[in-house]
Amino acid sequence: QKEVEQDPGPLSVPEGAIVSLNCTYSNSAFQYFMWYRQYSRKGPELLMYTYSSGNKEDGRFTAQVDKSSKYISLFIRDSQPSDSATYLCAMNVGGSYIPTFGRGTSLIVHP
Amino acid sequence: KAGVTQTPRYLIKTRGQQVTLSCSPISGHRSVSWYQQTPGQGLQFLFEYFSETQRNKGNFPGRFSGRQFSNSRSEMNVSTLELGDSALYLCASSLNLARGETQYFGPGTRLLVL
Prior knowledge:
The structure holds 2 protein chains of 2 kinds. Chain A is mainly beta. Chain A contains no helices and 11 strands. In chain A, about 35% of the residues are buried. In chain A, the strands form 2 sheets. In chain A, strands 2, 4, 5, 9, 10 and 11 form a 6-stranded mixed β-sheet that branches. A 5-stranded antiparallel β-sheet of chain A has the order 1-3-8-7-6, with no helix packed on it. By secondary structure, chain B is mostly beta strands. Helices cover about 0% and strands about 55% of the residues of chain B. In chain B, the strands form 2 sheets. In chain B, strands 2, 4, 5, 6, 9, 10 and 11 form a 7-stranded mixed β-sheet that branches. A 4-stranded antiparallel β-sheet of chain B has the order 1-3-8-7, with no helix packed on it. In chain B, a hairpin with a 5-residue loop joins strand 7 (about 65-70) and strand 8. In chain B, about 35% of the residues are buried. The interface between A and B is medium-sized, with 19 and 23 residues.
């Protein structure tokens, strides 16, 4: 079993929908949580970064961490076709700065 | 500022050969990390260099090696290529990853081993 599990999808939604992307993890030592977006033929780019539990909002994006359930989520409101990409979760243990990535979820937002 | 650049973008090799991939980080960035991305395993950390020193290494065989030059440019070498080495190899640079600075990824080099 991988340390970080992420459903590969694809997840297909209509434009304007609220999207929920999720990861579960097994290592309770993870303290730093990130979401990356990767467009086709591009490298990943950091979207959101949170420390420990709680919510963080940035525009249409909200990152949520539930350490008690070992579960993190990324919500995208008013999804756009330009949001179509692969979303990767990543996390670090405290004291280490090397992230462990999920395999990514492919999101398709159709007009 | 120019982003992270990687060369070549695409490469086809045969089993047993060796390959060298190159990464030029963002100007001023001293930390360079390398990752392997495959559909089955996802993104996996290979190694990280800072000021020409390897600071961290992932769980990959010794066939995978790297180095960093004084201008922070980095190269990654894979010797005795195997079919399973076919992957997207991504380089990421940061001002200093150990201080929590953001990593910026390049577009990757897609390696196909036949």
